[in-house]
Amino acid sequence: MSTQHPAGPHYRVEAADPSAHLYQVTLTVAQPQGAQRVSLPAWIPGSYLVREFARHLQKITARQNGKPVAVHQLDKASWQIDCVPSAPLVVSYEVYAFDNSVRTAWLDTQRGFFNGTSLCLKVDTQEHLPHALELVAPRAFPHWEAATGLEPLKTGKRGFGTYRAADYDELVDCPVELGPLWSAEFRAGGVPHRIVVAGTTASFDGERLVADVQKICEAQIRFWHDRRRPPFKSYLFMLNAVDDGYGGLEHRNSTALIASRRDLPRLGDSRSTEGYVTLLGLVSHEYFHTWNVKRLRPAEFAHYDYARENYSQLLWFFEGFTSYYDDLLLRRAGMIDEPTYLKLLTKTINQVLQTPGREVQSVAQSSFDAWVKYYRQDENTANATVSYYTKGALVALCFDLTLRLEGHTTLDQVMRGLWARCKGGPMAEADFAAVLKELGGRAFTREIAAWVHGTRELPLKELLERHGVAVLDEPSQLQQRLGVRASEANGSIVLKTVLRGGAAEQAGLAANDEWVGVEVAGAAWRLGKLDDLLLYAGTHRKVTAIIARDRRLLRQELALPASASTWRLALRDAATAQAWLGQQG
Ligand SMILES: [Zn+2]
Q: Residue 156 CB: number of other CB atoms within 10 A?
């Protein structure tokens, strides 16, 4: 260790064995405590599930003064090392990395990616010190590059070398991408931004992606700060293009994204496919989080406890309001037109209206329970829970449209008011209520109680209609009419969920049933597609469903309900809608 190195922990990460998916990590603690404790996080901020990253850590050993010292495991994720305080402690271990998501770590012969929460042991009592991360260039892959949001301390052209983090929080909030990367740079709000993409094909139109992402960034920086600079010195988008995948995780000055290669823009094709709009929505969502959850954040997240669940009732605000603005800002930046925006909003509304769990759980409860409900979905999820993303977005819509009707302020101004009030830091629900009252000219206690803490329907219809949007009824799909969610593959129909209070539930159908056939007026039919039920039933309202459950064939009497309807939004008064959809308020 030279004197230039910070006094805090130093991690040397090698892509040691890509074929075995193993990283080799060497952690040097220059000034350890006697009996130093180290631990690996159980979760990663932004993804509210205990994932037990330590289950992939192996072969941990320690040395001091060149001699081995004993390592005692204390629990599933922490160790105590028999060292003395006088000399540097060197801890070595391997981490198995074969999860191709944005939340953990990956290593193969094509690519590497990791979050510090998977690879970097936390050194007890040194969390607040500067941390160094040394990325070793793999000799077997001379064309690989490294990219991360961390501040470079001493790095080469390809990005390998040593980076610095102010503390452990920053270290694990800056994931690292490794591999042959497509890369481009641009500026937004006067700040350098970079996009790296892994897994591209020859058809990839990188120039178009960069131009569109830049527009999104400019619009959001303007949203929060008008002409002033954003609160970060640089920003990095890491996009992993795969055959089939979707997701993102927000960080303080970067984001890791996964998207399907089919959704990337293609050379010589200027259309905006549904998939590309979805990708831009994801970019917009994660970038908005740079303010809304990474800086402005639940008071409970002021200091993360990496060992266990960190509960918050506010995810409806941080995920829901971010979901409201992700598509709205695409519209305002001119990347989608109003009918396309209303189509996306229609989808969100129908998702919530088709979830019986909205009558069981409020979005505040759904936020708190994310660890065991939203992140652990099963056949009962739709009946017992509501998504704080989708309903939270509709709560934001209701606040925005109400504020605009009353004419004192807009939700945009409330967001900036909150940023100012909380100095871009921890906030409580009371802060939201206070800013609403201050800018909105009255208290919104009743709305917060009903929309955030209640389970009754939101006043979407009247609010949308008063903003120039018509709410039309459309006949719903047969699955919705029957109250089931089913998968159809190779001529086999399997029920995934039986919705509360629906016809299928009343008929005694259950999740995991295979819907084999139907009997109508004495004739029995083998069902290959659920929609064929209407082909065989004709005008008959009573049929017999034949299902297979645990190898038994069961006959269940089913009353087919009259047609049900879903919503469709349409522009009725463009000038009125323009005030909301057209510009920043
Ligand atoms: Zn989010």
A: 12
User: How far does residue 555's CA lie from ligand 1's centre (Å)?
Assistant: 44
Query: Ligand 1: distance of its center to the CA of 286 in Å?
Result: 6
- pLDDT of amino acid 190: 96
What separation in Å is there between the alpha carbon of 315 and the centre of ligand 1?
A: 9
Could you give the CA distance from residue 178 to residue 161 in angstroms, rounded to a whole number? 12
Q: Where are the alpha helices (DSSP H) in 267-410?
A: 274-289, 315, 321-332, 338-353, 363-368, 381-384, 390-406
Residue 562, pLDDT score:
86
How would residue 71 be classed by pLDDT, with cut points 50, 70 and 90?
very high
Report CA(197)–ligand 1 centroid distance (Å): 20
**pLDDT higher at 584 or 199:** 199
Q: How far is the CA of 293 from the centre of ligand 1 (A)?
A: 8
Residues with CB under 5 A from ligand 1 (ion): 319
Give the distance (Å) from ligand 1 centre to CA of residue 305: 20
Measured between alpha carbons, how far is residue 86 from residues 5, 29, 44, 68 in Å? 18, 11, 33, 15
Taking the C-alpha atoms of residue 483 and residue 356, their distance in angstroms, rounded to an integer, is 10
Could you tell me the distance, in angstroms and rounded to a whole number, from the CA of residue 289 to the centre of ligand 1?
A: 7
* The pLDDT of residue 584: 66
Pair 357, 381: CB distance under 8 Å: yes
Instruction: Summarize pLDDT for 229-281 with one digit per residue, the tens.
Output: 999 999 999 999 999 999 999 999 999 999 999 999 999 999 999 999 999 99
Distance 326 CA to ligand 1 centre (A): 10
